[in-house]
Design brief:
By secondary structure, the protein is mainly beta. The protein is built from 3 helices and 50 strands. The strands form 6 sheets. The protein has a 31-stranded mixed sheet that branches. Strands 11, 12, 15, 16, 17, 18 and 50 form a 7-stranded mixed sheet that branches. A hairpin with a 4-residue loop joins strand 45 and strand 46. The relative contact order is 0.14.
Length: about 800
């Protein structure tokens, strides 16, 4: 079927004579709803196709230029999610009403598709359009985000940004302190419009996240009327893999509402091979193990929200989120225990004869969470174009899950050990913030604000062991406890934004006061407290040298606060080989980030590169020590510093009219220095991850996509993580004038989801190979009724799932 490109735009020009100098004023609006578009990029261009001056439209969508020279040819207006528009300048003084059209529009049953670049470098962020990543469709946000240049996901599902797990995830600008991997796993990738990566955020954002922030922008429908969209996925019944999502919106000129629901069940079979070696006194212990390690994972969520525009100067928004997630990790392993005595002993000796014990370990660890979040915000624009914004957020999360661990003699049902534990951890969080924006002269804006956060996290932990002689369960006080953690954060900030000719800048300072207290039942008269004031300066600058060339530099100070798990002052025995113990006196990690970036576009090639240095102070080390002959004790402590120095890049190549290639990567040198119990450690490695993605439009409605992701090996505090290679392919056919689609996907096509995690000191060695059998073929169906796929104001939990 032929594709007709239909371009519609409205331009109203009125000319007034106010003086002798040429001036230009105007307003930017949505071409469908006629709502104002604040902070659009407006630039003046000379007749030789070079940029003269640029600025952002204000909070009312208005812009103004003075003293325009005679060689100016046109004004260019750009906004994320809309087609750019060029308007000629007529007359000495002009006022332009510019109405931008969304990039994807359905008009008179004719499908019109605008192709955006995969990435866009702005003053404080890099924006990635998700349409290029077809292989993540009908998956989760986790499937999508690992295709970005600086984001990696290992085989255990741990997400890092520039090699660090300490980043904050936002959803539609709302901060979320839940574990990023778990938040992303609960967002269907079909509902994600774009991803913003902020590695040096400005002062108006929370200072949390030593590596920066990632903002997930979700979709909505911006047209007047009702729309529906949905997707269904099936990847087999053994193991069980299926899911779906649906979304409904209703929009009028003064209000809109939406509701969405999703469900996903995705089980994964796996295998684990490991070994542990310890030297304790005069004994060398060697304990190899092997067996299945499967996952059962299900989740659902319900979302609703809306907006009300009583006047053009007032906006009310509300949103609600309810969700549940549960992950069951089942490890059924066969162990052999060998012991060698005498002196001298070699840690890697293999002169063992017969094992002193062989046993079968069954370990079921269930992690569940129920999440509720409610938000409301209001903004008002005054006559002087200043803007007041208010926001309130309430969250309640209930975390928990049982653990069941048993050992039996090999080949029998005779019990050696049976342990079980339960956890109940309710979390309540409140957030209030007020922000004010004041326009100043000479294209400058002053932003001030005050943010308040309060978190209360309680925990009740019960650990029991079966007495094999009388078959009675008995609580173990070494692993059972009750704790209460309270945190209050007060954060005022000030930020100056401005534009002068081709230079745009933002200079800010944020102050955060932290008050933290932790108490627990085992020490009834002890209060662990921390009261501290932190300063967080920031600077961002961008030079728009031409329409295709820009230069950017930035600096930001960040903080990463330890989670409840890392501060728990009691022992936790989650599986046979490891016992964990937190430190209630842990300090936050402080990071200073400096970066320089360039962006250059040619006719068929665009390129972005950013060099960066991340200095990290008071790094939290995960330290392993010998607890017993067969168990490692794991603790957490501030024991040193680290530095990451590297470069990330993205390249988009339009090889032909129907073929695009997207390449990205992150290369960095990682150095870590620390000292624990008088022992100094120094580790360093050159790390990199590379992503490749190609899209071929075989027919106007048939698109093929293939991607490959490679993660190099990397050092840790006491060991090394091996490399990881993943690759996927898909074929998508669009139906019914883009109202439906069918997609065939092949995931992990080379069956290479295997990674080795090693830890070592002079007296112990631990190595584990994790393999996931997730090479699957899945089919997905999608539909859209009156849907134009723009953003929706949604929300997620602000704190709970960080401790999931």
């Amino acid at each position: 079927m032929k594709v007709y490109v239909f371009t519609a735009s409205i331009l109203f020009i009125s000319i007034q004579v106010w003086g002798q100098d040429q001036m230009l004023k105007g307003i930017v609006q949505d071409g469908i709803t006629e709502k104002i578009l604040p902070y659009a990029n407006v630039s003046l261009w000379k007749k030789d196709s070079t940029v003269f001056q640029g600025l952002l439209s204000d909070s009312l969508g208005q812009f103004s230029f003075k003293n325009i020279p005679a060689n100016i040819s046109f004004v260019k207006v750009q906004a994320l999610g809309y087609r750019s528009y060029n308007a000629s300048i007529l007359g000495k003084n002009s006022f332009l009403t510019i109405k931008l059209k969304p990039e994807n529009t359905v008009l008179n049953e004719v499908f019109v598709q605008g192709e955006r670049s995969v990435s866009d470098l702005q003053i404080d962020k890099q924006i990635f359009n998700t349409r290029q990543f077809q292989n993540s469709a009908n998956g989760t946000g986790l499937d999508l985000i690992q295709r970005l240049p600086s984001v990696t996901v290992n085989t255990e599902g741990n997400v890092t940004l520039r090699g660090s797990s300490g980043f904050i995830l936002l959803v539609d600008g709302k901060p979320s302190s839940r574990n990023p991997a778990d938040v992303l796993a609960q967002i269907p990738s079909n509902l994600i419009e774009s991803v913003e990566v902020l590695t040096t955020p400005s002062a108006r954002y929370d200072a949390d996240g030593k590596a920066g922030m990632i903002n997930i922008i979700t979709k909505k429908d911006s047209q007047i009327g009702t729309s529906w969209s949905g997707n269904m996925m099936n990847a087999g019944t053994n193991p069980l893999r299926w899911g779906g999502d649906i979304m409904w919106t209703l929009a009028e000129k003064k209000w809109n509402i939406f509701a969405a629901a999703d469900y996903r069940r995705f089980d994964i079979e796996g295998f684990r091979v490991g070994e542990i070696r310890t030297i304790l006194k005069d004994s060398l212990t060697y304990m190899p193990s092997a067996g299945v390690r499967d996952y059962r994972d299900f989740q659902y969520s319900l979302r609703a929200g809306g907006s009300f525009y009583p006047k053009s100067t007032d906006v009310f928004n509300w949103s609600a989120y309810v969700g549940e997630k549960q992950t069951d990790r089942m490890a059924n392993l066969n162990y052999q225990e060998y012991v060698q005595t005498g002196i001298p002993l070699s840690l890697f000796s293999n002169s063992f004869k017969t094992p002193i014990k062989e046993f079968y370990n069954q370990n079921l660890f269930v992690r569940s969470g129920k999440f509720q979040t409610f938000t409301g915000d209001y903004s008002h624009i005054y006559a002087n174009k200043s803007k007041l914004s208010l926001l309130a957020l309430y969250e309640f999360s209930e975390l928990g899950g049982p653990l069941n661990n048993s050992d039996t003699y090999k080949g029998t049902s005779q019990l050696l050990l049976w342990e079980r534990s339960t956890e109940t951890s309710p979390l309540t969080a409140l957030r209030f913030q007020i922000d004010y924006l004041l326009p100043l002269s000479n294209n400058r804006k002053l932003e001030i604000g005050y943010h308040i956060r309060q978190i209360q996290h309680d925990g009740d932990f019960l650990f029991e062991r079966l007495n094999l002689s009388n078959q009675q369960w008995k609580s173990d006080p070494n692993f059972s406890d009750q704790m209460k953690l309270s945190q209050k954060i007060h954060a005022p900030y000030v930020q100056l934004n401005g534009t002068k000719n081709i230079f745009t800048y933002a200079l800010g300072l944020r102050t955060e006061y932290l008050s933290r207290t932790l108490t627990h039942h085992a020490e009834p008269n002890k209060i662990y407290s921390l009261d501290q004031i932190y300063l967080f300066p920031s600077f961002q600058g961008q030079w728009k040298l031409s329409d295709s060339y820009s230069f950017r530099t930035a600096y930001s100070r960040r903080i990463d606060r330890p989670t409840t798990k890392l501060m728990s002052p009691f022992k936790n025995h989650r599986h046979a080989e490891t016992i964990e113990n937190g430190d209630p006196n842990l300090l936050p990690e402080i990071a200073d980030i400096v970066e320089i970036g360039i962006s250059k576009s040619y006719e068929n090639i665009s390129f972005t590169a950013t060099a960066y240095v991340n200095f990290l102070k008071d790094k939290v080390f995960r330290v392993n020590e010998i607890y017993s002959r067969t168990i490692l004790g794991r603790t957490y402590t501030n024991a040193g510093n680290s530095q990451s120095t590297g470069m990330e890049f993205t390249t988009e190549i339009k090889a032909t009219k129907n073929w695009k290639i997207y390449l990205s990567g992150n290369l960095y040198q990682f150095d870590v220095q620390g000292k624990f119990n008088g022992i100094e450690t120094t580790q360093n490695s050159f790390n990199y991850n590379l992503n490749g993605n190609t899209v071929i439009d075989i027919l106007p409605r048939l698109r093929f996509a293939w991607d490959i992701n490679y993660l190099s090996k990397s050092v840790t505090t006491q060991g090394i993580d091996s490399e990881l290679l993943l690759s996927n392919a898909s074929l998508k056919y669009t139906l019914w004038q883009n109202k439906g689609s069918i997609t065939f996907q092949a995931q992990n096509i080379f069956n290479t989801n295997v990674q080795t995690i090693q830890t070592q000191t002079k007296d112990f060695f631990s190595s584990t190979d994790y393999r996931k059998w997730d090479r699957v073929f899945q089919i997905s169906l999608g539909f859209r009724i009156n849907d134009r796929g723009q953003k929706v104001k949604s929300t997620k939990t602000d704190y709970g799932e960080k401790d999931f």
